[in-house]
Amino acid sequence: MATTNAARLSPDGVRPTAEADARVWDAAARVNDPEIPVLSIADLGILRAAAATDDGGAVVVITPTYSGCPAMDTITEDVSAALRHQGYDPVEVQTVLKPSWTTDWMTEEGKEKLRAYGITPPTGSAPVREGPIPVGLSVKCPRCDSLDTKELARFGSTACKALYQCRSCLEPFDYFKVL
After folding, report:
1. Fewer CB atoms inside 10 A, N or C side of the chain?
2. pLDDT band at 172 (very low <50, low <70, confident <90, very high)
């Protein structure tokens, strides 16, 4: 694979300003998460960097929501296919684990899409791993907005979510955990 300027591939999760790199970002950003199809990988914050290479190819950097995320193979394949469809060849998708993904990287638009889909988005910021124990806040029901909810299971339909039930409308719902 041809080289790119390393500074252009800084995995900061910000859309590049250089036109060629921005086109690569935009093509990758249209890929949806296979577990939560209303979210793009950009909405989710796992798209960290993108750049065109000097040989007509592309490099994209992604960070999984957690190191064992089963969706990463599918996301890698989908990003590669999306870029090849746009004419990029060769395509390289790099997975980086550091820094660890955090729900702080999710876009506000992505959080709104989650709520509209019936999943309560994460609230607050990811806890600092040092110092006092973080205090949990109430989780709002995405259907009736009640704060009278209870956790039924720490793990919901995916490891990133917990299963809750609203005591007001009695509906179960997923809560995207703050990580």
Report:
1. N
2. very high
Would you list the domain boundaries of the chain? 6-101, 116-176
pLDDT digit string, tens, across residues 120-149: 988 766 555 555 555 566 888 999 989 999
Question: How many Cα atoms within 13 Å fall on the side-chain side of residue 131?
Answer: 5
**Residue closest to 140 by CA, chosen among 105, 176, 107, 179:** 176
DSSP H helix total and E strand total for the chain: 4, 7
Peptide bond into 132 cis (omega under 30): no
Is there a contact between 40 and 30 (Cβ–Cβ < 8 Å)? yes
pTM value surpassing 0.85: no
Give the number of other Cβ atoms within 10 Å of residue 170's Cβ.
10
The Cα–Cα gap between 73 and 113 comes to: 23
Select from 124, 122, 99 the least CA-distant residue to 12: 99
Percent helix, strand, coil in the chain (nearest 5)? Answer: 25, 20, 55
Residue 135: the pLDDT is: 54
Take residue 10 and report the two structure tokens written for it: 């800084």
CATH class of 6-101: alpha beta
